Every structure is written in structure tokens, then in C-alpha cells.
Amino acid sequence: MCGVVGIVGTSPVNQSLYDALLVLQHRGQDAAGIMTCDNGRLHLRKDNGLARDVFDNQHMINLPGSMGIGHVRYPTAGCSSSAEAQPFYVNSPYGICLAHNGNLTNAEQIKRDLFREDRRHINTDSDSEILLNVFAHELGAETNKLSFDENDVFRAVSGVHRRCVGGYAAVAMIPDYGIVAFRDPNGIRPLVFGVREGENGPEMMVASESVALDTLDFERVRDVDPGEAVIFTRDGKLHTRQCAEKWQRSPCIFEFVYFARPDSIIDDIFVHKARLRMGKKLARKTERVLGKGKIDVVIPIPDTSRTSAMSLAHELDVRFTEGFIKNRYIGRTFIMPGQQARKKSVRQKLNPIDVEFKGKNVLLVDDSIVRGTTSRQIVQMARDAGARSVYFASAAPPVRYPNVYGIDMPAASELVAHGRTDEEVCRWIGADGLIYQDLDDLIDAVGKKGKTQVQRFDASVFNGEYVTGDITPEYLQRLEADRNDAAKELRESNGSPTVIGLHNDR
């Protein structure tokens, strides 16, 4: 999972790009990067770490220009080497750089085609570099001339959609021309754009979440449609076109459950309101499963579940309180690479307030249960704090299937609900009772009971139905072998080769 941003301004954009990455930091904590364009020359800074650690004052000075793109990364493919931090750059044609959120499901086939047919070399294991080279090749094939216009760019994006399968939201920058943003034909990964009036004219911005626009005083225009390309030119013009032959609104429902910030709007759905509705739905099921009077207090697992837990408690007329204090300097455990790192960080991250647990029947509410390790430790922490009974509620259904569109849970064997019944999961995490949200209720909660333009949600992690239609058991087996924690640790222990590319000011 990653966060992307692109800005075409009328004054230096380095500070705005940095501020946007801070707001999008929850989407990736492994690496950060910014590339700007100043009078046709590109300037790049990227490295491993949080945005606040990657960029210092001198780095910002070395990023001049009124146009640029930025990226925060958590790797689901490749390795965590700084060489795979984004944006990526390719010299031909025109010198294009790109930042990407998502995952290509046919990456290996495209990589072979790029080498055999397009005579393009891929130097990393990142499918973002593959996406960049496909776009660059298609643009070069469309033009074969010194200049180009928006029609050439739109045809190039159409070529990307014909060749690339999966979930992707990308921003690309072409020196002295502008920024191109496009989204996969299913709209799996989010992308939104907005405008503001600058000192010398209109400025335009595109980002993974609308909250990045809000914090920089850009007025949200709308989401980039699935399959659509949006062009912001240096002279302040906006061009849009639908570039996919077939498209549908099918956003990843897990964005609303966990990843997106609650103050974001995705496909015209307010994430905060969606989570409130999740809590109401979950409350009704909790009452059906546990009956009335069994719960003394509802306690959220900070932070994502707080909205749903508050709504659930209100619906059940049960006291809601904070029972865990979160260390703000520990990252989100779900997107930490390696099971040992996740397990070690839980006790560093959360500490219970004993008085809220002692002698009480507690309902813990979390947004979801993925690997189950965190849930198990938290249940034990509640017992150690003196809880009489510990029940656990998940605002999402059981996660039984791997994600293939850019979320770091690809190995089915690492999912606690895979191959287990709800009762077996309950015993595994050590709870006295476990309540999962029903999938139909989740879809109703996020989709506002059909009052949205979304045609279907990608809920593949819950039901195994992949919207791109190309996922086979053999593909999932290869993914399991390549992306489980053991494979990741082996890649990291073997080290990463030095990658040759555009100068990276380190």
C-alpha cells in the first residue's frame, strides 16, 4: 500500500509535496520520495524511512521547481531497498517519472514483453517500474516526434489499460509539460484531484486521498474515474478523458475498513460515515450473538476502530471508553514488514488502563483481524488488566483470502481466518466470544444501501472474488511462495544490489 501526490503550481511546490506526504504517511512507512521539475531539469530525493526522516532542510532546498510528484511506500513486492523507493525515472521518451499505488497482477508477463518486444530493461523487482516503462513505451509509440499533445498522452494511457491488469493509481510527470494521473479501469485504488488559486494563477493537485487536498487548501473537484486520465499542464490547463474500453467503479472495500483516514472521501463516500454505519451494523449482530446485558464497557483498539466502536456502543447503549494508550511513535503493526517486528511492537505500541478493565465484561472492537497475532496479545493484555470476560468484535468479516491489488497480506497461510471457523479463530485469539461483521452488512454500510455510484466493491479478501477476473489458484500459490514473511526475510538477509538510475541526493 502506498500514497501518491502530484502538484502543478505557480510557485515552488517542494513544501506542499512534503506536507502532503506527511498527511499520507499512514499509507506507507517504509520509504518516501519527491521529484520536482525546474526549467526542464529533474531533482530527486528518496530513501527508506518516514517522510520526516528522509527530508531535511538541505534536501528541500535541492528540490526546486513549480511542479513535482511524491510517494510514500510500503512494499508488497520486491524488497525494501531504497533503490525501490519511488518516484522512478526513465529517460526515453521525454524523461518521464512516475509514482504508483497498487499492484499489477500480470507483471511478469509484461516484464517479458517489455524486454522481448519493446526492448526496455527493468532494473528492479518493482511493478511500478514496469508500469512506468509501459506508459513510456506507449507514449513513444504514439508520437515518434519531438512534440506531443494531450491526445497522444490519452492514447498512451489507453495502451497502459490494454496491457496492464490489476489495481493501480499513478501520477506521472513529463518535464516542461505537466502531470498525468490515471486509475485502473476498476478503480480499485483511490485517486482524487483538486484546484486552488495560487499567487499567479490556478494550481492543481492529485493525491491518493482527499485529506491531502484539504490540508493544503485545495478544493476537491472529484475522484479520478476508473480508467480515466487527467492531465494538468504547466500553463494551467486541465484535460480529462476516459481511456478504457470497459470500466466500472469497484473500489477496494478495505480502504474504508482500515487504510484510509476517516476524514477522507473516496468515490464520494465519506470514510467516517461509512465506519459509523459499520458500527451500527455490528451492534445489531453483537446483540443477536451475545444477547443483552453481557457487556459492561466497549473499548476500541486504537486508532482506526474508534469510530465504529463508538457507534456500536451508542447503538447498544453501553458505556464507551478508551482503555488503551497508544504510543504515537510506533508505526501501524499491520504494515510492518515481518511477523517478528509486528509481534514485538504490540506491547511497545499499546498499554492498558487497568481501571477500565478490572472486574468488567469487556467488548474489544477492532477494524479487522488479519494475522490475529495482535488480537491475541491484546486479549491477553485485557485479561492481565483484570477483565472478567473479554469479547472481541471485528468491524470487518473474516479475512480468508490474500490481497493481490497492493495490500500487504498476500500469503493465505498467514491469515488467521484462512481454513478456520469463527469458533476456532475465537479460541486462537483467546477471547470468550467473537463477533465478525457480515459481508452483506459491510457492503451496505460502505455503499450507503445502494445510494452510491459504486457498482460493486472489491471484497476479495473476504469472499475470494477478484474483480479483474484473472486470478488463478496457481497465481495465488506463486504469490504465497514469493511474499510470505519467510521469503521477505530471506530477500532482506541476502541484501539488495546497487541500482543505477537518476542521481539521488542522499
Question: What's the topology here?
Answer:
Elements: E1 2-8, H1 14-23, E2 31-38, E3 41-48, H2 51-54, H3 57-61, E4 67-73, E5 88-90, E6 96-104, H4 107-116, H5 127-143, H6 150-163, E7 166-174, E8 178-183, E9 192-198, E10 201-207, H7 210-215, E11 219-223, E12 228-233, E13 238-242, H8 254-259, E14 265-266, E15 269-270, H9 271-290, E16 297-300, H10 306-316, E17 319-320, E18 324-326, H11 339-349, E19 350-352, E20 361-366, H12 373-384, E21 389-394, H13 422-429, E22 433-436, H14 439-447, H15 460-463, H16 473-483, H17 485-494
Parallel strand pairs: 16-17, 16-20, 20-21, 21-22
Antiparallel strand pairs: 1-4, 1-10, 2-3, 2-4, 5-6, 6-7, 7-8, 8-12, 9-10, 9-11, 12-13, 14-15, 18-19
Protein traits:
globular, alpha+beta, 33% helix, six-stranded antiparallel sheet, 506 residues, seven-stranded antiparallel sheet
